[in-house]
Amino acid sequence: MTSPHAPNGRREFLKQGTLAAVALSTGSAMAQQPQSPPPPPKKQPVVEHPHDHVKAEYDGFSRYQPSRGNSPDSDFYLGKLVPGFRKPEEGPAPFVAPDLQPLSWEMKNGAKEFHLVCQQVEREFLPGYRMVVWGFNGSMPGPTIEVTQGDRVRLVVHNELPEETSVHWHGFELPVQFDGSHTLTQNPIKPGKTFVYEFDVHEEGTFFYHSHVAMQETMGMVGWFIVHPRKPFDPPVDRDFGLIFQNFAIMPNQTVNDSFAEGWNWHTINGRSGPYTTPLVVRHGERVRIRIMDFSPIQHHPIHIHGHTFWVTGHEGARAPKSAWIPRNTELIAVAQASEFEFIANNPGDWMFHCHMTHHMMNHMVTHVGPRSRPNQHVDQYLANLDRRPQIPIAHEDPAFAVPGYPQGMKGMEMSEEFMKTIWLRREFMGMRATAPKSLKGLMTALRVLPDDLYSRVMESDEPIEKGAIFQEIVNRFGTPAAYEPAPKMMMH
Ligand SMILES: [Cu+2]
């Protein structure tokens, strides 16, 4: 991860561990106490605006509260050209692909030289769910390549797979011999062999690299290739996130993806399923860019963000001229396409950010014969008593069964104590509602918009934070505390 505040390295991990341990013990204590009433309503504070090079409000659009501004033709309608806090001379905001690592390079003979190893990798989609997929350098998706427009790049690709491969640099206008189109433009890279690609990057934008063997793509062989413009785009953004959406078919009791399947039951964002996807945490009022790419085998993703309206500023081809930007809250992204959104984070809270395909909002889906025919039961209870063969009642006495189609609440996702510990160990999750992990599944993550002081508590401080505390504070300041019910203390492992 390249974020300056992201948990990265042992020291950060230890810090978080201590923090979490304190939070955990606080949590256990809380679990035995009666729930305290919500604090009395507070007046919405006047937001201090410490930045004199940008304004809090532009033509009726406020960076600190939900607002649209005036005319749809205004440059500032819905925050369209409202700048972030980052000064243009600071260069582009660092690109952050949560849960993925950047790929390092060395300058050699006038080119940035990167080394990629194609190989089978193990990826933990959820805590304890280690899946066997294919990727690069021990990662799926592969590590992120980040360069600047005008760079010359040399990509040394070594094949550790047991079969031939080639790597395609998706979208680049490069010399044809380095396009990586398996057998059309080069001889395949045989197992154990190396091929060197080299070209000048004259464009800027959101690119990616992937194996050009179709079934290998399905096994996960993809990674970001981000090219920053020589001159940062206007208006400057404070955050630049990248999320790769993928689907896999991994049947119960299996760890290996079925690359030939057409029904997909495991869904990942940067190689993790919700709630293991790492929330995007930003400061209230910042300008945020999110780049999304769909590398699913055959399915498209309508990506929806709550509480905000974003401008679509470009796709995988290039940045769009401002006159062509479109405001949306849901953007359909097809296979091998990318979309870039920008918005002002003017609405504090923990917001859902997800694919809207219903089947993509669940983990390890199977036909839930057991759980779906019996209400409020987990299939594990049934499996644990197979010797006694518990009867499945043909006539259900529960009155709910009078409703055709009941039940529809999916059961079967076990969140063990160890699982929950791993979820809550991450700094980015601190202070979310105790039940937050239950609502983030499959292709879902959270956008957290936090006022400066709460951002510091979550991302920069070692002060213990009780589950729900940050959310409660946001309701106190911006919502209606009297009408807010804290989450039950049910996930306090
Ligand atoms: Cu989807």
What does this structure look like?
With 493 residues, the protein is of the alpha+beta class. It has a domain at 95-359: Sandwich (Immunoglobulin-like), CATH 2.60.40. The chain is built from eight helices and 23 strands. Strands 3, 13, 14, 16, 18, 19 and 21 form a seven-stranded mixed β-sheet that branches. Strands 4, 5, 6, 8 and 10 form a five-stranded mixed β-sheet that branches. Strands 15-23-22-17-20 form a five-stranded mixed β-sheet. It starts with 9 loop residues before the first helix and ends in a 15-residue tail after the last helix. The model is unreliable at 1-37 (pLDDT under 50). Residues 299, 301, 355, 357, 360, 443 line the site of copper (II) ion. The site of copper (II) ion has 6 residues, from loops.
Concise overview:
With 493 residues, the protein is α+β, with helices and mostly antiparallel strands. The protein has helices at 10-31, 214-218, 369-373, 379-383, 417-424, 436-439, 452-459, 469-478; strands spanning 57-58, 61-62, 95-96, 106-108, 111-126, 129-136, 145-148, 152-159, 167-170, 194-200, 205-211, 222-228, 239-248, 266-269, 280-283, 287-294, 301-305, 310-315, 326-328, 330-333, 338-344, 349-355, 444-450.
The CATH first-level class of the domain at 95-359 comes to Mainly Beta
Helix percentage range: 10-25%
Proportion of residues in β-strands: 25-35%
State the CATH superfamily name of the domain at 95-359.
Cupredoxins -  blue copper proteins
Per the CATH scheme, the topology name of the domain at 95-359 is Immunoglobulin-like
The major beta sheet can be summarized as: 7 strands, mixed
Low-confidence stretches: 1-37
Mean pLDDT across all amino acids: 86
Structural class: alpha+beta
Number of separate strands = 23
**How far apart are the termini?**
27 Å
Number of helices: 8
List each distinct ligand once.
Answer: copper (II) ion
Tell me the CATH architecture of the domain at 95-359. Sandwich
